[in-house]
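Bumping my old thread because nobody answered last time. Still need a sequence for this structure:
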């Protein structure tokens, strides 16, 4: 996904001279092509993420379209005040991109995990929170983010994530993308869990349960029209995300659901538990620890569906 991001921003920056790229001491080789084709528009801000957000806000106030990029936990937890004051308060069109989100860097321990940041940032007024599913959604999502009048946070994976889409999808911030139709249950997936959600739907199909799958790539603003439709149609709706079950997609949908009248469907949330993962392991193992596997998701939906 990070390679797709690098290629896409290089393409977009050649079309719009206002676009500048800020990095916090990572991705220097990744952006060699950007630096060659867009000279003078790449800024390595060093290990000073909070300052990078402030610099980006100033650039945006000067008419530029800054995109800030570094590892997710550093550009979110460390920069909450700057995102809140410098970007949201002034409603500046800065795109904040966190790479290696969720459990992508589980092998580096808890310091490099980010399973709470969407919930934290979702509270900030005026900030769109986006979690693309694959490299195609990264490219389409970046294009959409740069068209927004205010700040956008985008969390992406690292590398090697499977592509679900074969071409660029019709990506609108705040509009879910249905990738598989079904009649019995619905799985709403945020971020890189989409391929796992599809595998869960395939398992359910072998057990006689037809499941729709949607890439619910925008955590804020929620696609309430889509939610109204699926909670009226299905017996069971599940949210799947590599993020805490608190505050992220599952939390946002639960908040919305609490204000609805007699919804037909039951809600089931799959994500990381409200606990710290002390074990250092690969992403696949970390997902198993939290039950973020096709088998576990299918089993949970099957129990609820019956």
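Sorry it took so long. Here it is:
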């Amino acid at each position: 996904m990070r390679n797709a991001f690098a290629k896409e921003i290089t393409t977009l920056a050649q079309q719009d001279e206002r676009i500048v790229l800020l990095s916090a001491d990572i991705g220097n080789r990744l952006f060699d092509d950007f630096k060659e084709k867009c000279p003078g528009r790449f800024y390595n801000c060093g290990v000073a993420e909070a300052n990078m957000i402030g610099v980006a806000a100033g650039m945006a106030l000067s008419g530029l379209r800054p995109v800030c990029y570094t590892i997710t936990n550093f550009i979110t937890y460390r920069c909450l005040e700057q995102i809140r004051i410098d970007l949201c308060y002034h409603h500046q069109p800065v795109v904040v991109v966190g790479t290696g989100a969720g459990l992508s860097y589980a092998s580096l321990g808890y310091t490099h995990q980010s399973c709470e940041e969407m919930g934290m940032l979702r509270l900030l007024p005026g900030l769109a929170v986006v979690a693309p599913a694959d490299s195609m959604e990264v490219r389409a999502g970046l294009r959409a983010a740069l068209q927004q009048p205010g700040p956008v946070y985008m969390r992406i994976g690292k590398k090697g994530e499977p592509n679900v889409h074969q071409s660029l999808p019709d990506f609108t911030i705040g509009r879910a993308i249905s990738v598989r139709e079904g009649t019995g249950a619905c799985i709403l997936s945020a971020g890189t869990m989409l391929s796992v959600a599809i595998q869960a739907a395939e398992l359910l199909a072998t057990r006689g349960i037809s499941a729709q799958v949607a890439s619910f790539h925008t955590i804020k603003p929620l696609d309430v029209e889509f939610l109204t439709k699926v909670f009226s149609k299905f017996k069971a709706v599940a949210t799947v995300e590599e993020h805490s079950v608190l505050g992220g997609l599952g939390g946002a949908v639960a908040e919305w659901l609490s204000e609805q009248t007699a919804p037909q469907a039951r809600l089931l949330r799959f994500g990381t538990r409200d606990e710290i993962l002390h074990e250092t392991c690969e992403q696949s193992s970390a997902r198993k620890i939290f039950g973020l596997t096709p088998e576990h998701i299918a089993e949970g939906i099957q129990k609820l569906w019956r």
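The chain has a mean pLDDT of 96. Let me know if any region looks off to you.
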